[in-house]
Amino acid sequence: MSTQEIVFVTGNSNKLKEVQLLLSSVTNYKLTNNPLDLEEIQDSSLEEIVRKKIQQAVALLPKGTPVFVEDTALGFNALNGLPGAYIKWFVKKMSLDDIVKLLDGFEDHTGEAVTTIAYSDAKGEINIFQGITKGKIVNKRGNLDFGWDSLFEPLAEEGNVESLTYGEMEKEFKNKLSHRGKAFKKFEEFLVKN
């Protein structure tokens, strides 16, 4: 079987490194990166956001280029899923401490981390994959280099028996139970079969 190039559109070097680890067992594709400047669609639906992003990427790349994009959300149950897909902007405009303070006054500090991937194959057919991890929002602990990782503590039922935040976890352990890891596991299974 020949190796085909697949393009991941991201300008986030941390995300690229994590995805390279997550897809390292896919041998029928060679992962490359293109940091295309895609319009950031604002919508509460991750599926709609990635669908619009993949359509833009397909239009900008040579015809027939297999390509994928992803988007991640962090929703607080007490806030009916907000900030959700807008978490990226909250992290840019607020301190991590202030994001946690959004839940002051609420008993419920649980939430969901969600990653949604859109993939367009060489024929332009789009497939969407999603991973969800339930957890709670806590005061920052651990590595602060990757967005809101230090605020999110997956629940024990997700496999986090030591009550670590993503920021405190070793990458390999994090990838096994994270929302991104779950989404890319589905994507990986799809790529291996196709």
Automatic annotation (TrEMBL):
GO molecular function, one term: dITP diphosphatase activity
Catalysed transformations (reactions): ITP + H2O = IMP + diphosphate + H(+); dITP + H2O = dIMP + diphosphate + H(+); XTP + H2O = XMP + diphosphate + H(+)
Annotated Mg(2+) binding sites: 40, 71
One biological process term in Gene Ontology: deoxyribonucleoside triphosphate catabolic process
Binding site for ITP: 10-15, 53, 71-72, 146-149, 174, 179-180
Intracellular or extracellular location(s): Cytoplasm; Nucleus
InterPro entries: ITPase, ITPase-like_fam, RdgB/HAM1
Keywords, alphabetical: Cytoplasm, Hydrolase, Magnesium, Manganese, Metal-binding, Nucleotide metabolism, Nucleotide-binding, Nucleus
Primary residence: cytoplasm
GO terms under cellular component: cytoplasm; nucleus
The keyword Magnesium is assigned to this record: yes
Matches recorded under Pfam families: Ham1p_like
Function: Pyrophosphatase that hydrolyzes non-canonical purine nucleotides such as inosine triphosphate (ITP), deoxyinosine triphosphate (dITP) or xanthosine 5'-triphosphate (XTP) to their respective monophosphate derivatives. The enzyme does not distinguish between the deoxy- and ribose forms. Probably excludes non-canonical purines from RNA and DNA precursor pools, thus preventing their incorporation into RNA and DNA and avoiding chromosomal lesions.
NCBIfam families: RdgB/HAM1 family non-canonical purine NTP pyrophosphatase
Membership in a protein family: Belongs to the HAM1 NTPase family.
Protein's recorded name: Inosine triphosphate pyrophosphatase
Organism, as annotated: Hanseniaspora valbyensis NRRL Y-1626
Gene: HAM1
